[in-house]
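REQUEST ID: PR-0412
SUBMITTED BY: lab tech R.K.
PRIORITY: routine
TASK: structure prediction, single protein chain
INPUT:
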Amino acid sequence: MEAATVHHVVILGCGRSGTSIFGELFEHLTPYTYHSEPPFAELLNLDFSQPIAVKVPKESAGYPTTPGLSFPLATLLAEIPDPKSFYWIVRHPLDTVCSLRVGISNDWGHHPKPPDWRDWLERPLVERCAHHWDYVNSLGYEQVRKFVSLKHFETMIRNPRQFADAICREVSLDIAAYDSALAQWADRVQNTNNEKFVEAKTSRHYSRADHKTRIGRWKENLDREEARRVTSIVQRTANAFGYIPD
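STATUS: complete
OUTPUT:
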């Protein structure tokens, strides 16, 4: 009976903003089959007779993307049956820029790439990362703003169990039935590197051991001039999400 009412889930957002660890919450919830960044063409062939959770579908040849997203939004909405819940997770731009550096320095390895990404290749790395964050969180978010549930990375990190319980309520899962699984996921979501922290699998190759905390990481990684350069690019979009870069 539960499978008939539990929502399918799509998690969207800029890379290095918590999409991976948020997505892996659904690996802990037995009704779900979780797919991390599947090519869009593969997503269309999934079995939606049981709850599916998908994180940020990738581009596929033959499927023109919606600006700011890596897939054709209208097709996705038509193909995933109701009930379904869409989420957008956003992270402070200065912290996200610190985490984006590895992927962006490697042939702009995060998607979707801004259409003018090649024009930015000679710019400082932090500016390229800032442009990526701004592109996805402005144009990409605007495409889905009317129907996504907006979540902040910082809320998830500060109280992961409360965050997970709220998600379960939103997708019609019985929290009590999954108490152990929710506790297991929440236990690994930490603001600092410690014995409990377990990083999302798909994020590990982007990691740098150059910071002690995730919230406010930029204070360890960026100098004043780098922070100024980032802020000059992201200010308007950051303010719209409630962030006021220092």
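NOTES: The domain at 2-240 is CATH 3.40.50.300 (Rossmann fold).
REVIEWED BY: pending
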